[in-house]
Amino acid sequence: MKRLGAFMLAFKLFTGANPGWVYVDNGKIHYLFEKKGKRLTQGGITISSYNLPYTDSVVVGVEGKEHTYRGEISIYVDPFGSLNIINRVSLEDAVKSVISTIPVGEKNGELLKLKSIMARTMLLYLARTKRIIPDSTDFFVYTGRDGESPLGNFASKFTIGAFLTEDDSLIVPFYHINSGGITESGEDVDCPYDYLISKIDTFARFGKNFEWKRVITKDSLYKVLKTNVIEPFEFTSSGRVSSFITDSDRVIPADTVKNILKLPSLLIYTEESKDTIYIYGRGKGTGLGISLESADYMTSSGMSYEDVIRFFYGGKVNITRRFTNEELYRIPLVQYSQKAGTCPHYR
Fold first, then answer.
1. 190-223 exposure pattern, b = at least 16 Cβ within 10 A, e = fewer
2. Are 193 and 263 in a shared domain?
3. pLDDT value at position 61?
4. 198 and 240: one domain?
5. 0.85 surpassed by pTM
6. What is the mean pLDDT of each run of 10 residues along the chain (347 residues)?
7. With contact defined as beta carbons under 8 Å apart, do 229 and 246 qualify?
8. N or C: where does the chain have the smaller number of CB atoms within 10 Å of the terminal CB?
9. Where in the chain does DSSP place strands (E)?
10. Beta-strand relationship, 290-291 and 175-176
11. Which range marks the domain in which residue 251 is found?
């Protein structure tokens, strides 16, 4: 509480017309930076950048919020005048943070082992392709030390050095919340990886997102889509809708409808009454890769995380161990230049 109080006091004292950033290490205020246009100043002196050395716990205050990170912090202003705060961190420390941001099974030790391997694979993939680590709920979110948990840290140590490969190449470990009973084929969504197969998933029915229902009035539908009727028109091999057709024979991409209506998935069918459209669906997410609610049930029932990987990836993915703790390239703490989650982003 003393550290937080000192941080907030310093923030209020030193911020005025120009936003300020206070950096706190081991409970003491060390540095105050101000961004003035395209300049970064410290104590009224213009500086090009500043590096906070590698440490096990550094508290970073940005715009009145305080978060704790491991690793090295770099601060600079880019040519466009945007402030950049970059965290360089070891692979295993980053894994500890990312595990807890993958939903489902926060207290399931075996599932946490699987999530630690998925997180490590994704972080390695992004680092080796020289991509920054994105902040996106479509895939993984990096929250620094604040996101760690004792059980997650144990799981990451148990699987240290383990990641997923196909033919000795890192995979992109796609996952979703619930498959609705069948996973999606990558071929159907412009994501032709051999390990992204359509698979009957009977374990999904034990998840809370297995079935759902949405009700929307035709007036409400018209306001957002300029039509009173939408019907599924084209389907993928798993039965997911790939496009809808309207009362005027206009075809709308399924993802557009899903995003606008905030539908959990596209494994759906519709019914209509006089003034209302009923949407019945199963599952949550894209259906690509591992169904987390299924994996939670499988591992809670005695199956191992290796069994889950074999099941959802059709035996095409291997667990490879290389004891390396290489640093990631950089993780931005203020701005994110790109989002993750769509297959073409990684190809």
1. ebebebbbbbebebbbebebbbbeeebebeebee
2. no
3. 74
4. no
5. no
6. 40 42 66 78 81 80 76 83 83 90 90 95 79 53 86 93 92 93 94 93 98 96 92 96 94 94 95 93 95 97 97 94 72 52 44
7. yes
8. N
9. 20-25, 28-36, 39-42, 45-47, 49-62, 65-77, 83-88, 162-166, 169-170, 175-176, 211-217, 230-235, 241-246, 251-253, 268-272, 276-282, 290-291, 318-321, 331-332
10. parallel
11. 211-282
Q: What is the pLDDT of residues 65-79, one digit of tens each?
A: 778 888 888 888 888
* Co-location of 179 and 30 in the same domain: no
Residues 265 and 330 in one domain: no
Cα distances from 288 to residues 182, 196, 285, 312, in angstroms, run: 10, 6, 8, 9
Which residue type does 147 have?
G
Instruction: For residues 51 and 186, state if they share a domain.
Output: no
Q: How far is CA 123 from the centre of its chain?
A: 11
Report which DSSP code applies to 248. T
List of residues 6+ apart from 96 with CB closer than 8 A:
145, 147, 148, 152, 153, 156
- 79 shares a domain with 216: no
Q: Among residues 244, 325, 251, 303, which one has the least CA distance to residue 279? A: 244
Rounded (10°) angle between helices 91-99 and 109-128: 130
Say yes or no: 303 and 165 in one domain: yes
Greatest extent of the chain over all pairs of C-alpha atoms, in Å: 69
What's at 199, amino acid-wise? K
Instruction: Report pLDDT for 131.
Output: 61
| Residue 268 main-chain phi, psi, to 5 deg | -140, 165
Residues 308, 298 contacting (CB under 8 angstroms): yes
Q: 248 Cβ partners below 8 Å, 6+ apart?
A: 227
Question: pLDDT (tens digit, 9 = 90+) per residue, 257-268?
Answer: 999 999 999 999
Which tokens in the block code for residue 27? 């409970």
Same domain, 30 and 114: no
Q: In 10 A of CB 81, how many CB atoms?
A: 11
